[in-house]
């Protein structure tokens, strides 16, 4: 195995195993910041050893065992009280097989799930909402500060500062590593749902890299969403989020072509949509609708996704209902991204000119200045209006903004097609 191959393998393993690794260490050490530091130490050792020795058969257990040995060394260096040293040292020195069995057991233990404990710890009310989201995305999703910044449309330095301060605050407040009691669950639930959905979004549309999707992140977010739904069965928005993720995930197989290139929603082969996931999503949406009153933001987005899932063909999509749902969503959670999605729906319901007018109004938005979907959507609408030269420029700008290899190639191809549709130079001068 070459060094480059080993590093790619290590990166893939880290994406999958880092959350479990940090969560397992945090449960033992009761210190989220220290747990992440030790996990990073184990990663560094893997980067040194795996290019020569190869990736182990069970890389997660290898990383856990390595991190535990680092923890023992740390405990010795800082000279913790002898009793605590002995208790933690005994636990941390359990053999490799025990570590593997514990990891597998925790994956199937709903209430005692280390990952869920990690989510609620990172979402503790002692932290600001922004810090809760940034810390949990970092710990649970294994995302870099840059990826979190792009997901939340803030600067990388802002995210880095939030994470550092959040870990310090948790340590100083001695926040327990546990799932909150029933009476505390409600106040911490909304931030947990926000975090889970952001993790899902990073999996559904990867910010960077060679793949359009990161299925492991989607699966982890969906699994956590289902767990929270069981913990809070009377909370409609929990079911709304689960419904949204189930229905969105149903399209995964149809979202890319044989070569891995993106396939737009309206061009997807709907026979490849997973009907079981769609039915699960409909069932979760029904649970979200049971209480009287207006739907919440996640349930509204799930209802939009359901409109697509109910249409046997793209032409049968009820775009006017989707526009109405986006109207309601923009009232509840106004944001430039919601408005951009609403503009797309308006263009489908009432024509590309109506959609372009709304998109043009969003161009000055600072939050969308580096958001590649803004010029991508604008390019699509311009192309539909026959303004191919402007469309070409917008697709090129969108390609320059994305750092996902698949999206970059897709947008360059759209720019190329727009260029072919441009009138000859002699015609443009007339």
Automatic annotation (TrEMBL):
InterPro entries, per database record: DUF6596, RNA_pol_sigma-70_dom, RNA_pol_sigma70_r2, RNA_pol_sigma70_r4_t2, RNA_pol_sigma_r2, RNA_pol_sigma_r3/r4-like, WH-like_DNA-bd_sf
Ranges where the RNA polymerase sigma factor 70 region 4 type domain occurs: 121-170
Domain DUF6596: 188-288
UniProt domain RNA polymerase sigma-70 region: residue ranges: 21-77
NCBIfam families for this protein: sigma70-ECF (TIGR02937)
Entry protein name: RNA polymerase sigma factor (Sigma-70 family)
Annotated organism of origin: Pseudoxanthomonas sacheonensis
């Amino acid at each position: 195995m070459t060094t480059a191959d080993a590093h790619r393998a290590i990166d893939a393993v880290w994406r999958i195993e880092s959350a479990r690794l940090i969560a397992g260490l945090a449960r033992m050490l009761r210190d989220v910041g220290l747990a992440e530091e030790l996990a990073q130490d184990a990663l560094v050792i893997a980067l040194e050893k795996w290019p020569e020795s190869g990736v182990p058969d069970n890389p997660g257990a290898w990383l856990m065992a390595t991190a535990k040995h680092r923890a023992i060394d740390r405990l010795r260096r800082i000279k913790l009280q002898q009793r605590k040293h002995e208790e933690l040292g005994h636990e941390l020195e359990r053999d490799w097989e025990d570590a593997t069995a514990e990891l597998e057991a925790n994956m199937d233990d709903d209430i005692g799930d280390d990952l869920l404990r990690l989510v609620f710890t990172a979402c503790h009310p002692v932290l600001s909402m922004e810090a809760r989201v940034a810390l949990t995305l970092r710990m649970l999703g294994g995302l870099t500060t840059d990826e979190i910044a792009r997901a939340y449309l803030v600067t990388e330095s802002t995210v880095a500062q939030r994470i550092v301060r959040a870990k310090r605050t948790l340590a100083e407040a001695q926040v327990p590593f546990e799932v909150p009691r029933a009476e505390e669950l409600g106040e911490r639930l909304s931030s947990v749902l926000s975090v889970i959905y952001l993790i899902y979004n990073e999996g559904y549309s990867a910010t960077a890299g060679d793949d359009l999707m990161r299925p492991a992140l989607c699966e982890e977010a969906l699994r956590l969403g289902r767990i929270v739904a069981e913990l809070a069965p009377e909370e409609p928005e929990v079911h709304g989020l689960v419904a949204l993720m189930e229905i969105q995930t149903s399209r995964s197989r149809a979202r890319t072509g044989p070569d891995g290139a993106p396939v737009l929603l309206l061009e997807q082969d709907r026979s490849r949509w997973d009907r079981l996931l769609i039915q699960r999503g409909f069932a979760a949406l029904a649970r979200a609708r049971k209480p009287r009153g207006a739907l919440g933001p996640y349930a509204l987005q799930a209802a939009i996704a359901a409109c697509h899932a109910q249409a046997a063909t793209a032409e049968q999509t009820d775009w006017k209902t989707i526009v109405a749902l986006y109207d309601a969503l923009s009232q509840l959670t106004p944001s430039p991204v919601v408005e951009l999605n609403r503009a797309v729906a308006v263009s489908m319901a009432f024509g590309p000119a109506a959609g372009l007018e709304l998109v043009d109004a969003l161009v000055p938005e600072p939050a969308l200045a580096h958001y590649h979907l803004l010029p991508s959507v604008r390019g699509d609408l311009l192309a539909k209006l026959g303004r191919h030269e402007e469309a070409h420029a917008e697709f090129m700008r969108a390609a320059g903004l994305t750092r996902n290899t698949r999206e970059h190639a897709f947008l360059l191809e759209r720019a190329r097609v727009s260029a072919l549709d441009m009138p000859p130079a002699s015609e443009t001068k007339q």
